[in-house]
Design goal:
Blueprint (H helix, E strand, L loop, with lengths): L9 E5 L5 H10 L5 E5 L11 H16 L5 E4 L2 H14 L4 E3 L1 H11 L4 E6 L1 H6 L1 H9 L4 E6 L3 H6 L6 H17 L5 E4 L8 H8 L4 E4 L1 H15 L11 E5 L3 H12 L6 E3 L12
Parallel strand pairs: 1-2, 1-3, 2-9, 3-4, 5-6, 5-7, 7-8, 9-10
Length: about 280
């Protein structure tokens, strides 16, 4: 395919701040690409919500992103990917990348014992998306899942370290690993969880590989842009936008830990309930 310069942004969606871990990897690997990020913090977390509600909220957010004229969409939310990826692809005129498959492939490649544990939101666990994708990548792999409903609200509140964070993480991780001693790979099945990667790694120890989908999703996006011949030339000074449906100051507090001075001013986004319209 003939290569052409496509200056349109990559659209990135998450239910809150978690997808910023994917955005950070995209900006690191693809520094010339413009981006527009939307966090639906006003309705986070998505994990405990019914699947139909997750699909509706995701389509409403995707409509907002599509209005920004992106060349590609990234569902940087595991719950949204698990429940709404097919619906989003049907609705979108541009390619859509989810986070489940890249993370699953990475976990299947990382395990030496063939035993993988996945921690995720209740919605992602109930969907069965990760066990299906991991076994598809490596048929002999055994997958144990655990829903961790306290983690997303903890991250959204900016509690990323300290005694409280460690206590909550230990309450989930220690019984999980004790009951499954063969597990040598822990997949962080929520894009919020890499913000807790340091305390998680400290609890599980060096014998357990900690895998998340941010890096592998960025690789998938890079490969897709190359296939489409849609790489951008050079990003401009106003190439990155970040928006939230929730509290701008609270969102910026967590986001600044990832981006520091490189974080653009956070915008307030208003999502209209357009997803009730038929999917094309």
């Amino acid at each position: 395919m003939t290569e052409r310069a496509d200056r349109r942004p990559i659209g990135v969606f998450d239910s809150g701040v978690g997808g910023l871990t994917v955005l950070a990897e995209l900006r690191r690997r693809l520094p010339d690409e413009a981006t527009v990020y939307l966090g639906d913090n006003d309705r986070a977390p998505y994990g405990p919500r019914p699947a139909d509600e997750v699909r509706r909220f995701t389509l409403e957010a995707v409509d907002w992103l599509l209005a920004q004229d992106p060349k590609l969409l990234v569902l940087a939310c595991n719950t949204a990917t698990a429940h709404a990826l097919d619906d989003v692809r049907a609705r979108s005129a541009v390619p859509v990348v989810g986070v489940v498959r890249p993370g699953a492939v990475a976990a299947a490649a990382a395990t030496r014992t063939g035993a993988v544990s996945v921690i995720a939101t209740a919605g992602t666990v109930e969907s069965g998306a990760y066990p299906d994708a991991i076994v598809e990548a490596s048929a002999d792999t055994t997958v144990v899942q655990l829903a961790c409903p306290e983690l997303v609200p903890m991250v959204e509140a900016g509690i990323l370290e300290g005694r409280r964070a460690e206590s909550i993480l230990r309450a989930y991780l220690e019984p999980l690993l004790s009951a499954n001693p063969g597990v040598d790979t822990l997949l962080l099945g929520c894009t919020h969880y890499p913000l807790l990667r340091e305390p998680i790694a400290g609890i599980v120890g060096p014998g357990v590989a900690v895998v998340d989908s941010a890096f592998t999703t960025a690789l998938a996006v890079e490969d897709l842009l190359d296939v489409l011949g849609a790489r951008a030339p050079a990003a401009g000074t106003d190439a990155h936008r970040v928006a939230t449906t929730g509290d701008v100051a609270a969102f910026a507090m967590v986001a600044e830990r990832l981006f520091g001075e490189r974080l653009p001013a956070v915008e307030q986004a208003s999502i209209e309930a357009t997803a009730a319209l038929p999917v094309d």
